[in-house]
């Protein structure tokens, strides 16, 4: 596809999809006074150029029995290859986010567990998977008051 330029109509469609990605395109078309085909083609274009990467489901983990969440920060003794760290952490299903940072702690990870005992076991598992951890700090999440998608002012 030649350079597709995002316009105001695309921005309006994106705003609606960011709030609710399952919203029927026919409903978006009706609200924006566009044809169903126009909205469908524009969404496909936005997918093809990589603006829309995927559609996600937001899960209430507490409702599924995952009542403990934490961030952990890892500081390694030596310059461990980040791809190795990521590959190891990706094998742990309770790891839900991995971030690489500047500063003292190079790796910041979010984990979810059923309870604090499970959380403790996860922390020990992570510590045992790496030979060169200099420091591991954990931050138990007591309450999350804001978890929203960014609705860009496009």
Please characterize this protein's 3D structure.
There is one protein chain. The protein is of the alpha+beta class and 154 residues long. 36% of the residues lie in helices and 19% in strands. It has five helices and four strands; from the N terminus they run H-H-H-E-H-E-E-H-E. A four-stranded antiparallel β-sheet has the order 2-3-1-4. A hairpin with a 6-residue loop joins strand 2 (95-100) and strand 3. Helix 2 crosses helix 3. The longest helix has 14 residues, at 116-129. The chain is elongated. The model has no long low-confidence stretch (mean pLDDT 90).
Q: What portion of the residues fall into strands of 2 or more residues? A: 15-25%
Order of helices and strands: HHHEHEEHE
Distance between the termini: 21 Å
Care to count the β-strands?
Answer: 4
What percent of the residues sit in helical stretches (DSSP H or I)? 25-40%
Principal-axis shape equals elongated
Distinct helical segment count: 5
Strand order of the largest sheet: 2-3-1-4
Q: Biggest β-sheet: count, sense, barrel?
A: 4 strands, antiparallel
* Radius of gyration over C-alpha positions, nearest whole angstrom: 21 Å
Low-confidence stretches: none
Structural category is alpha+beta
The average pLDDT is: 90
Describe this structure in a few short sentences.
The chain is α+β, with helices and mostly antiparallel strands.
